Amino acid sequence: MKKVFCFGIICLALLFINSCTSITTTPYFYTSNANANFEMLGEIIYESTDRFGYIELLRAARRLYPDCDYVIDIMIDRRDTTITFFGLKNSDTTWIMRGTAIKYKR
Fold it and tell me: Is 25 helix (H, G, I), strand (E, B) or coil?
């Protein structure tokens, strides 16, 4: 019984040590690739309480960067606001979209 317990402890220790190590490589950045066929223009932030979607984000990107072709790396957040005034509650949801505007090289 003692040998099985010791063997189990050794296996768990090896499993723990192996799980803490990982093979890491250099992360891929769009700007570091010499063969990239697009150029990063900048970050876009779009907030709306009624309409949200990719088309609205692309329109906001084109207002800031007129030659924007596409928006990548999109993240969507939601912010809920509740205001209480004399026992009356008013809730409002704001959608926040963030992304990176790019322009394709032709």
Answer: coil
Q: What tokens appear for 102 in the block?
A: 């790019």
Residue 90 above 50 pLDDT?
yes
Tokens found for residue 9: 């402890």
At 47, which amino acid appears? E
pTM of the complete model: 0.58
Query: What domains, with CATH codes, occur in the chain?
Result: 37-106 (3.30.1660)
Contact 33, 97 (CB under 8 A): no
- Quick one: average pLDDT of 52-65? 91
Give the DSSP letter of residue 98.
Answer: E
The pair of three-digit structure tokens given for residue 65, joined into one six-digit string: 């960067």
Q: Are 64 and 101 in contact (CB under 8 A)?
A: yes
Q: For the segment 75-89, what is each residue's pLDDT rounded down to a tens digit?
A: 999 888 888 878 777
Q: Can you tell me the distance from the alpha carbon of 13 to that of 8, in angstroms, rounded to the nearest whole number?
A: 9
